[in-house]
Amino acid sequence: MTVILSVEPAASAPALRLRPWQTEDAVALVAAHRDPLLRRWLTTSLVSDTEARRWIDDQSEGWATGVRLSFAVLECSGKSSDAGRPVGHIAVKATDSSKALATVGYWTSAEVRGQGIASRALEVVSRWALGAQRIMPLARLELLHAVDNHASCRVAEKCRYALRSILPAQPPAFPREGHLHVRINGDA
Fold first, then answer.
1. Count of domains in the chain?
2. pLDDT 10s per residue in the chain (188 long)?
3. Which domain holds residue 57?
């Protein structure tokens, strides 16, 4: 199954296309993972094309099983609908067997950070995930980020994810305290 989502251009930002990751995205994926700030927040760092291709295969498996719906975020060039290389990532991952609850995560590459791409992509994916799609009939999305990741907190708030609690660190996967933000189906 191939799901492609579109984000209209904004006054100062290009249109976006969100689509499943493809093997040819490996080079851009490794390049994005070279960013020290990105590596600070991620639990996995991809340093080779082989690791990136394996990760992309895992994302494809997630789509096939309907438990992890992972999108590459691409900027569309100019006024055309031609999308360039990936500049971000967003994923919806089921956290219970009924697939009614999922976590959402995202990142943007260093060269586009601060341009509103994360919030625009998260809003479109959140509406889609909590909407009429039938892959994963969700009632609730949870977004977790480190307490000191202020940019992710702003993105969550901008996309109407309410801060519900502060969670204790859970090393090694989550070595810092975290904010738990939630968006429920009626918020879509």
1. 1
2. 789 999 998 888 889 999 999 999 999 999 999 999 898 888 788 999 999 999 999 999 999 999 999 999 999 876 555 678 899 999 999 998 787 999 999 999 999 999 999 999 999 999 999 998 988 889 999 999 999 999 999 999 999 999 999 999 988 878 889 999 999 987 64
3. 5-187
Pinpoint the alpha helices (H) of the chain.
26-33, 36-41, 49-65, 117-130, 150-158
CATH number, domain of 168, equals 3.40.630.30
Burial label, 69 (beta-carbon count in 10 A; 0-12, 13-18, 19+):
buried
Q: Side-chain half-sphere of 154: how many Cα atoms within 13 Å?
A: 9
